[in-house]
Amino acid sequence: MRRSEAVGRRTETEAIDPEAYSSLGDDGLDMQYLSLDVLQDDCPLTEVTRSHDVTCTTPYWRFIEELGQWELRVHVEAPDGPELEAGLERLRDDDAMRRFELRRKADSTAFVRVAFEETAAIGTVSRHDGYVIGPFHNTDGCERWHLGFDTRIDAENALSDLDRHEECIVRKQCRLDTALEYDPIRYYETANALLESCRQLTEREYVVLQTAVEMGYYETPRESTLTSIGEQLGVSDVAVSKTLRRGERKLLESGVAASGTVRSS
How many other C-beta atoms lie within 10 A of the C-beta of residue 194? Predict the structure, then answer.
């Protein structure tokens, strides 16, 4: 059963009466966004994260209808190389796996191309005209989904159907009725630029910035000084100042550019 308490939802599993939503607009649409964690027993990605200390993120996928299979590109990450090797071996040998191709591997990360039959849960979503609107993320035997439905009745009936066969936790459910809800999609490239600026931070820059934030350096009034931050890190105030400026420049350049993009649209 769905652990509905996460969002205070009802627990009944009866199908929704369409007349309950007769107040919808002329087009009958009440687009819904759902974020939920699903515990599947027939998904190889979920199974491998249940048995090994790995995480799987799937940014690209497609459903091959004539084969009844999902083909996915999966990024696999582990704390070290041996655990990654064990996880990849477990994934490759899963009974449900129809294709496994290692495309790239470096240190404790890998990128693989896999194919396996449609799981019961995703089949339920498809039957209720749902669609996937974000990457899958598997960790600790649980898969995070981001789903969309054209109407609230479709979303509710899909959840009711899932209740009968899967254990899931609804993390968020809301109506897609404002432009703000689409911002992650509209500003996809801008968001990527922000992420890239975060990746460009060196480990030292990140540590100094994090320490400055935690010590209240950016509060008004300031709760720390360059000297106190340096004492905390065991370096001089001059070194702290230079490192902060380098890190701030990387983050501010992309942040200001992103703000300009959003404000001008």
Answer: 14
